[in-house]
Amino acid sequence: MAEAMLSRLLANGYGANQVIVSARSPERQAYLHSTYGVTVASNSDVAAAHTVILAVKPQVFSEIESELADSSVVQHPGTVLSIMAGIPSARLRRLFPQRLTFRAMPNTPAQVGAGVIALATDSAATEAEVVAVKELLSVLGEVVVLRENQMDAVTALSGSGPAFIALIVEALCDAGVAVGLSRSLTQTLVYGTIAGTVKLLDEREIHPAQLKDAVTSPAGTTIAGIEVLETAGVRGTLIQTVKAAYQRAQALN
Ligand SMILES: NC(=O)C1=CN([C@@H]2O[C@H](COP(=O)(O)OP(=O)(O)OC[C@H]3O[C@@H](n4cnc5c(N)ncnc54)[C@H](O)[C@@H]3O)[C@@H](O)[C@H]2O)C=CC1
Ligand SMILES: O=C(O)[C@@H]1CCC=N1
């Protein structure tokens, strides 16, 4: 996710000389420097920047937290923006007491500027400071401002969501192959069907049940398929899927 943010920032007018990055392995550091021309530095140097973006795994954050806690950089003013799942801003505020703390949850379509990014703002931030963070995140896609106590739910739905959707897309492609279509034709049909369905629902503001009914002819093909989906409990399975991801996000706290 950090690399997606970096590449989108550089593609959207931010200069390589405005960004410093940190990474654990020397190979990764060399790759980031040679690919993007950015300065690679220690966590302390990065933490001295005006805007610090935290994009390590939540499990790694404890290491960085203790690494930085002894350093004077945590006293610098500025902004902290965390994209880590499950780490509350109160914990970030304890580490960086002088900074505004923002939490965001992007998703992987951010790599192509088509992400949805949930943002919980700091109540002490001015309108201009909120706008600055929203502008930064808008290179990744659509920014939605919400309350921090909604963040674990967002993580489960849109943060993890691309993996759930990708699994369904893969299964539908296999289904196309199972009924005799080539893999490449199947891919065109499945991608187009999903993108077109979402566009139709969105642009015409149609309820999903209305669209489902419009496709479903009496004694036709669609109702034969829907009977299988309902018998297999697909609705309940998807609800349980997102609830399991939500519980995991809460446990990461
Ligand atoms: N993968 C996803 O779709 C999303 C991930 N997130 C969040 O983003 C964060 C990162 O996730 P991913 O990008 O998937 O993980 P990743 O494993 O791809 O990236 C983690 C990065 O942390 C760096 N790192 C590890 N240890 C470090 C250390 N001690 N000091 C400095 N840098 C260090 C690594 O070099 C690596 O670039 C997580 O907190 C996750 O919850 C949020 C939204 C979506
Ligand atoms: O799986 C995870 O924990 C992260 C958070 C949202 C997407 N990936």
TrEMBL record:
<dbReference type="InterPro" id="IPR000304">
    <property type="entry name" value="Pyrroline-COOH_reductase"/>
</dbReference>
<dbReference type="Pfam" id="PF14748">
    <property type="entry name" value="P5CR_dimer"/>
</dbReference>
<dbReference type="InterPro" id="IPR053790">
    <property type="entry name" value="P5CR-like_CS"/>
</dbReference>
<dbReference type="InterPro" id="IPR028939">
    <property type="entry name" value="P5C_Rdtase_cat_N"/>
</dbReference>
<feature type="domain" description="Pyrroline-5-carboxylate reductase dimerisation">
    <location>
        <begin position="148"/>
        <end position="251"/>
    </location>
</feature>
<comment type="similarity">
    <text>Belongs to the pyrroline-5-carboxylate reductase family.</text>
</comment>
<dbReference type="InterPro" id="IPR036291">
    <property type="entry name" value="NAD(P)-bd_dom_sf"/>
</dbReference>
<protein>
    <recommendedName>
        <fullName>Pyrroline-5-carboxylate reductase</fullName>
        <ecNumber>1.5.1.2</ecNumber>
    </recommendedName>
</protein>
<feature type="binding site">
    <location>
        <begin position="55"/>
        <end position="58"/>
    </location>
    <ligand>
        <name>NADP(+)</name>
    </ligand>
</feature>
<dbReference type="GO" id="GO:0004735">
    <property type="term" value="F:pyrroline-5-carboxylate reductase activity"/>
</dbReference>
<dbReference type="Pfam" id="PF03807">
    <property type="entry name" value="F420_oxidored"/>
</dbReference>
<keyword id="KW-0560">Oxidoreductase</keyword>
<keyword id="KW-0521">NADP</keyword>
<keyword id="KW-0963">Cytoplasm</keyword>
<keyword id="KW-0641">Proline biosynthesis</keyword>
<dbReference type="InterPro" id="IPR008927">
    <property type="entry name" value="6-PGluconate_DH-like_C_sf"/>
</dbReference>
<keyword id="KW-0028">Amino-acid biosynthesis</keyword>
<comment type="function">
    <text>Catalyzes the reduction of 1-pyrroline-5-carboxylate (PCA) to L-proline.</text>
</comment>
<dbReference type="GO" id="GO:0005737">
    <property type="term" value="C:cytoplasm"/>
</dbReference>
<dbReference type="GO" id="GO:0055129">
    <property type="term" value="P:L-proline biosynthetic process"/>
</dbReference>
<feature type="domain" description="Pyrroline-5-carboxylate reductase catalytic N-terminal">
    <location>
        <begin position="1"/>
        <end position="86"/>
    </location>
</feature>
<comment type="pathway">
    <text>Amino-acid biosynthesis; L-proline biosynthesis; L-proline from L-glutamate 5-semialdehyde: step 1/1.</text>
</comment>
<dbReference type="InterPro" id="IPR029036">
    <property type="entry name" value="P5CR_dimer"/>
</dbReference>
